[in-house]
Amino acid sequence: MQEISTKPYLLRALYEWCTDNGFTPHIAVRVDNGTRVPRQFVRNDEIVLNISFEATSQLQMGNEWIEFSARFSGKSHKIEVQVTNVLAIYARENGQGMAFPVDPAAIGAAPDVSGENGPRSSELGPEESGAERIERRETTVSARDARDDDESPPDDDGSKSSGRGHLKVVK
To answer: Which domains does the chain have, with CATH numbers?
Structure first.
């Protein structure tokens, strides 16, 4: 019998941690042919999804798939993401969370759905981790018509930061 990955359990645990602390859980996802998301919100073969209770309907976080319904620009969409395609899960408010290593063989299988001239995921070197890719992300797409609050929460030392936390890559 094949051993089940720890990744879906870690995703569910961090989702619960975010919820228990009043944070908004987001997942960064590598988009491929098996990923069901609105393609107009995909950038560089990736999308960031708000998976909070308020932003989703019928959220199911299984061992193989994460499935839910969400609204994008006022229109409801059924979202289906393979757990293996999740690059990271983190709290929007402070950036705390966890990034996951990306299988270099799987990156090459992802089509260029971005429609942009930037580098495709398959063109990125395997030395670049999911956390580094998230750090350089310019656009965050929420699965909800979210209200942006311009104020970032203070750091542990009381100082204001850019609101971007750092993710730890778990191998």
So the answer is: 7-145 (2.30.30.220)
